[in-house]
C-alpha cells in the first residue's frame, strides 16, 4: 500500500495505523470514546488532522509516548537536533577524534548561528581531546 507523504513523512494518522496494526489492535480498541469511527478511518488515511490532546489519548491507548511516536513518524530517525546532540556526546565521551572530525566536516556545510555554535563546540572538543592525548592532562587557557 502506498502511503501519502507530507514532504518526506507520513501523516500522523498513517503512523498511528501502522503502529495499531503492528500491535494487533482494532480501530475500536484504539479510538472508542476518543473520536468517531468515520473520523478514525479518515484520520488513518491522512485525510483528517487531530488535536494534540486527542493524539496523546490515542498514543496512550497504543502504549507509546510522544517521543517514540515522533521517532517512528520520522522513519526511525532522530530529529536533526537530537541526532547532533547524540553524536556529539557519544564521540566526545568516547574521545573518538575521527568521528568528531567527520562531524565537523558535515557541520561546515550548514550556515547560520546554530551551525556556527556547533562548529565552535566541535572544534573546541577536538582541541581538548588532542591536548589530553598529547600531554596526558587538560589545562584550560587562562583568560
From TrEMBL:
Residues 16-69 form the HTH cro/C1-type domain. Gene3D superfamilies: Tetratricopeptide repeat domain. It comes from the Bacteria. One of its GO terms (molecular function) is DNA binding. This is HTH cro/C1-type domain-containing protein.
Amino acid at each position: 500500500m502506498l502511503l501519502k507523504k507530507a514532504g518526506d513523512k507520513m501523516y500522523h494518522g498513517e503512523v498511528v495505523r501502522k503502529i495499531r496494526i503492528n500491535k494487533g489492535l482494532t480501530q475500536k480498541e484504539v479510538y472508542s470514546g476518543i473520536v468517531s469511527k468515520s473520523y478514525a478511518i479518515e484520520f488513518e488515511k491522512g485525510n483528517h488532522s487531530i488535536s494534540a490532546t486527542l493524539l496523546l489519548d490515542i498514543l496512550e491507548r497504543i502504549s507509546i509516548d510522544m517521543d517514540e511516536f515522533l521517532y517512528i513518524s520520522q522513519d526511525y530517525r532522530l530529529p536533526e537536533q537530537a541526532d547532533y546532540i547524540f553524536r556529539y556526546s557519544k564521540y566526545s565521551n568516547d574521545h573518538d577524534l575521527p568521528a568528531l572530525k567527520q562531524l565537523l566536516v558535515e557541520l561546515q556545510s550548514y550556515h547560520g548561528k546554530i551551525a556556527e555554535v556547533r562548529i565552535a563546540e566541535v572544534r573546541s572538543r577536538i582541541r581538548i581531546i588532542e591536548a589530553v592525548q598529547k600531554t596526558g592532562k587538560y589545562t584550560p587557557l587562562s583568560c
